[in-house]
Amino acid sequence: TAGSAVADYQISMGSLVASNPGNYSLQLGTENYAITRKPIMVTATAVSQVYGDTDPVSLPYTLSAPLATGDSFTGKLARTAGTAVGSYPVNQGDLALGSNYDLNFTAADLTITPKAIVITAVSKAKNYGENDPAFEYNFSPLVSPDVITGTLTRIPGENVGTYNFELGTLNAGTNYTLNLSPLPQFTINNSTITVTPITASIQYGDAEPVIGYNFTPALKTGDAFTGALARAPGNTPNSYLINQGTL
């Protein structure tokens, strides 16, 4: 009996005859012709995506054997719900093939990996002896409504020079990896100190006094001058310009 779907089909004599039909009476047995379901193994393909990305429209899979011409799947695979970084099992969902197939399924995982965020510090500077300014930074977009908490820091040091910024306590949670751009840096510049000599006078032949001075602003605690002011050479009565000398 004609048919291609899964079922038992009656076998008929068809065109079967003996070579000398007058000598034979043909009788047909009762066995049937069976079409059984075709086994198909669907194996989910492991998938990876970055936190915040949209799931693929259809989760991919492979087949153990091709389908019969004209046949196709209905439905699609699904996965365990979740948007945070982690691994989520992919399941059969509503993927189906109909009654002509035995559909078996092998699971895999959809993995969500952390989103990389670039932190770029805003260039900052101060003069030696001053307090650090508030540090600021820019960053590539987060997934709404996520935020970054904490503060940016820098490598310790108070001498004149450049210092790299550090991530400090900046944190956006386990769904992100924060990467700090190496530039710009934090700069400590020289502090400008104005020294004002105290006018002095002596009589011809007197010993030279120590030339006093005032200065502003105050030095940082622990710092001090070395050396001394000097004056232009000369011993005759006159006015002599005071210079920095070895100060």
Question: What low-confidence regions span 5 or more consecutive residues with pLDDT below 50?
Answer: none
- The global form is rod-shaped
Strand content: 25-35%
Question: What is the SS-derived class?
Answer: mainly beta
Task: Output mean pLDDT.
Answer: 95
Query: Order of helices and strands, N to C?
Result: EEEEEEEEEEEEEEEEEEEEE
Q: Which strand order spans the largest sheet, edge to edge or round the barrel?
A: 4-9-7-6
Count of beta strands: 21
State the helicity in percent bands: under 10%
End-to-end distance: 117 Å
The profile of the biggest β sheet is: 4 strands, mixed
**Using only CA atoms, what is the Rg?**
45 Å
Number of helices: 0
Structure, described:
Strand 6 and strand 7 form a beta hairpin. The protein contains no helices and 21 strands. It has a four-stranded mixed β-sheet, with no helix packed on it. The N and C termini lie far apart (117 Å). The protein is mainly beta and 247 residues long.
Reconstruct the topology from this structure:
Elements: E1 7-10, E2 32-35, E3 38-44, E4 47-50, E5 61-63, E6 78-79, E7 86-91, E8 101-106, E9 108-113, E10 115-121, E11 124-127, E12 137-139, E13 153-154, E14 161-163, E15 165-166, E16 176-180, E17 186-189, E18 194-197, E19 213-216, E20 230-231, E21 242-243
Parallel strand pairs: 3-8, 4-9, 10-16, 11-17
Antiparallel strand pairs: 1-2, 3-5, 6-7, 7-9, 10-12, 13-15, 14-17, 18-19, 20-21
Task: Describe, in short, the structure shown.
By secondary structure, the protein is mainly β. Helices cover 0% and strands 34% of the residues.
